[in-house]
TrEMBL record:
<dbReference type="Pfam" id="PF13556">
    <property type="entry name" value="HTH_30"/>
</dbReference>
<dbReference type="InterPro" id="IPR042070">
    <property type="entry name" value="PucR_C-HTH_sf"/>
</dbReference>
<comment type="similarity">
    <text>Belongs to the CdaR family.</text>
</comment>
<dbReference type="InterPro" id="IPR003018">
    <property type="entry name" value="GAF"/>
</dbReference>
<feature type="domain" description="GAF">
    <location>
        <begin position="31"/>
        <end position="166"/>
    </location>
</feature>
<dbReference type="Pfam" id="PF13185">
    <property type="entry name" value="GAF_2"/>
</dbReference>
<dbReference type="InterPro" id="IPR025736">
    <property type="entry name" value="PucR_C-HTH_dom"/>
</dbReference>
<dbReference type="InterPro" id="IPR041522">
    <property type="entry name" value="CdaR_GGDEF"/>
</dbReference>
<feature type="domain" description="PucR C-terminal helix-turn-helix">
    <location>
        <begin position="534"/>
        <end position="589"/>
    </location>
</feature>
<dbReference type="Pfam" id="PF17853">
    <property type="entry name" value="GGDEF_2"/>
</dbReference>
<dbReference type="InterPro" id="IPR051448">
    <property type="entry name" value="CdaR-like_regulators"/>
</dbReference>
<protein>
    <recommendedName>
        <fullName>GAF domain-containing protein</fullName>
    </recommendedName>
</protein>
<dbReference type="InterPro" id="IPR029016">
    <property type="entry name" value="GAF-like_dom_sf"/>
</dbReference>
<feature type="domain" description="CdaR GGDEF-like">
    <location>
        <begin position="351"/>
        <end position="481"/>
    </location>
</feature>
Length: 604
């Protein structure tokens, strides 16, 4: 059985070479029929996230025609159960299991055979979710209508392996990736498999080992361990930011040269050949891991030899191919998630309580309940943040933001927009337990501005449930608008910390300027003519609520000097600082002036 299964895995991996074929699904179904001879019908349902439905995309009848197109809600029947749970189901023997017909009732309605003598109800059934990165994208259903043969757990295992290949193909379809983008990567594995003589057998064994790891979803770590078992070479896998993604246990001798990126990708052009650098008497081979003509990572391999044997090159070339394929799979997931993020944000801002929003949020790692807030960022001199985030500098910024947010929050969604970058974050109750939840938002803003002082950052208050993210977005947007519109020296602000200013500064700019001029113009002109600094004195006196001792200390003057300045201010303005209404106008005007037109706020 193990030998048969190994052969099956190898054949399943060969489906990768059929990705560009219009008959891909027929090849996949034929492979299943070859291994599971009792199959009468196969139905492939793919998830339409816009309609929140599972729809039949491909149908296959063994020796009979299957006709009929149908769709399911993701909560209906056996297909909905499998899709929601992410676990395959094997249902046996309609004659002994009374609930069987109820479980597959919807399937019976859509599966029709030209041969009218066959039972209308399957005798056994397999339903397997099509999963990628723990995200369901469809369901594969296999049916046996005979009373002589029943599907088994071994058949379920076969189906699960084929669905992994189908899932990858589905993602390639979703991101509209043309076959020529994969041409070099696919031709590489083909060349490895078609080597002459004994090397053909060796390459086949190596490829089969890596493909088994790939199908099991173990990916980077296990692939490097497998390659190490063949070569005994220490190796490290880096991403494009030269961050370590995976490594073997003995990599202390590996240090990337400072000009690694230039060596692999000089002048922005990808070099397909390997680079070899001598380090401490050893050779460090640098192999670009790429797909679609774009570098995604670097495989660094340490060897004592200046030339690699044919077998060693076979292993490393095959490893490179499968690593690129893992990255391609992750890129497909990222592309799909990017679309989901945009749809989720648009849906939330619309204010409609659409049930599909919860499904999309769950796929992206957010739940309905919890505490949520929004951060908005604007990069200076960038008009279109969507285009900016597609470039290297923007990708590095998103990477930095992701690290900052993951260290401080429970779940995040980062959505680049035209005018800004939006971060929707959820947090634990202990992260936002005081000052009306302001601490977590303030901590995030502080971390972002510390990492990138040039960026303008705003934050909302924290609200319960995902449906209040719309309110969070409005607050963060108001905050960002105020910073852009008024503040010269301030680059970040929390909506809660803005206090009454969020009411005052949402007015028209000309109205605010007129209000400040009506009140403060006499002392501004006096300072200009006399060279005094009464406006700063008034700002501190207002900001710290007439605390003579504290303001005197901040301004480094005697208390009597402060009293004299306050008396002069009252005289120039014609206001009494002891009158509540007069004091309100003076306090509001002076604090707004200090925030908007000066850097007084930075001296507090």
């Amino acid at each position: 059985m193990n030998r048969n299964f190994d052969q099956f895995v190898t054949k399943a991996t060969s489906l990768i070479k059929k990705f560009g074929s219009a008959d891909f699904y027929q090849w996949a179904f034929s492979l299943l029929v070859e291994q599971i001879t009792c199959i009468n019908a196969i139905m492939l349902y793919l998830y339409d996230d816009k309609k929140n439905l599972l729809q039949v995309e491909h149908a296959f009848g063994f020796e009979r025609n299957v006709r009929g197109i149908h769709s399911f809600n993701t909560s209906e029947g056996i297909c909905g159960k499998v899709f929601s749970s992410g676990k395959g189901e094997l249902i046996l023997d309609q004659y002994q299991l009374k609930s069987f017909a109820q479980n597959i009732e919807e399937l019976v309605d859509i599966v029709h055979f030209d041969d009218g003598n066959i039972s209308p109800v399957p005798s056994s059934l397999i339903a397997v979710p099509i999963m990628l990165e723990n995200t369901p994208v469809g369901v594969l259903v296999i049916m046996d209508f005979s009373s002589q043969h029943l599907l088994t757990l071994r058949h379920l295992n076969y189906a699960e392996n084929v669905t992994k290949i189908i899932a990858l193909h589905r993602h390639f379809e979703n991101i509209n990736m043309e076959n020529y983008d994969l041409h070099e990567e696919l031709s590489l594995i083909k060349n490895v498999l078609e080597r002459d003589g004994d090397m053909l057998l060796y390459a086949g064994v190596v490829s089969s080992a890596f493909s088994s790891i790939f199908l099991k979803g173990q990916e980077f770590d296990e692939m490097l361990k497998q390659a190490y078992s063949y070569t005994s070479f220490p190796m490290v896998l880096y991403n494009i930011f030269l961050e370590k993604m995976s490594c073997t246990d003995d990599t202390y001798d590996i240090e990337l040269p400072e000009n690694t990126i230039d060596m692999i990708q000089p002048h922005g052009l990808l070099k397909k050949e390997w680079r070899c650098v001598t380090q401490r008497g050893k050779c460090l081979y640098l192999l670009p891991v790429q797909y679609g003509g774009t570098i995604r990572g670097i495989l660094a391999v340490c060897s004592h030899h200046s030339q690699l044997s044919i077998k060693e090159r076979v292993v490393l070339e095959t490893l490179s191919f499968y690593l690129s394929f893992v990255w391609l799979k992750k890129a497909a997931v990222n592309e799909r998630n990017k679309s989901l993020k945009s749809e989720l944000l648009t849906g939330i801002l619309s204010g409609k309580k659409d049930d599909t929003l919860l499904t999309k949020a769950k796929i992206l790692g957010l739940t309905k309940n919890g505490k949520f807030f929004v951060i908005l960022l604007a990069v200076p001199d960038v008009d279109n943040h969507l285009d900016y985030c597609e470039k290297q500098e923007g990708a590095e910024l998103l990477h930095t933001l992701e690290d900052i947010m993951k260290a401080r929050t429970r779940g995040i969604i980062i959505v680049p927009e035209y005018n800004d970058i939006c971060i929707i974050a959820s947090c634990n109750a202990e992260n936002c337990s005081n000052k009306r939840y302001a601490n977590i938002v303030a901590n995030v803003i502080e971390a972002i501005t510390k990492a990138r002082p040039d960026i303008t950052v705003s934050g909302s208050r924290v609200y319960e449930t995902i449906y209040n993210v719309r309110k969070c977005y409005w607050e963060a947007n108001q905050c960002l608008t105020i910073i852009h519109k008024y503040f010269i020296h301030r680059k970040s602000f929390n909506y809660l910390d803005m206090g009454a200013l969020r009411l005052l500064l949402t007015q028209r700019r000309e109205d605010i300027e007129a209000y400040m001029e009506d009140i403060l113009r006499p002392i501004i002109e006096y300072d200009k003519n006399k060279g005094t600094d009464l406006i700063m004195t008034l700002f501190y006196y207002s900001r710290f609520n007439k605390s003579v001792s504290y303001v005197s200390k901040k301004l480094n003057i005697h208390t009597n000097t402060l009293y004299q300045r306050v008396k002069k201010i009252e005289e120039l303005l014609g206001y009494s600082l002891d009158d509540p209404m007069d004091w309100f106008d003076i306090q509001a005007a002076s604090i707004m002036y200090g925030l908007i037109y000066t850097d007084l706020i930075t001296k507090l």
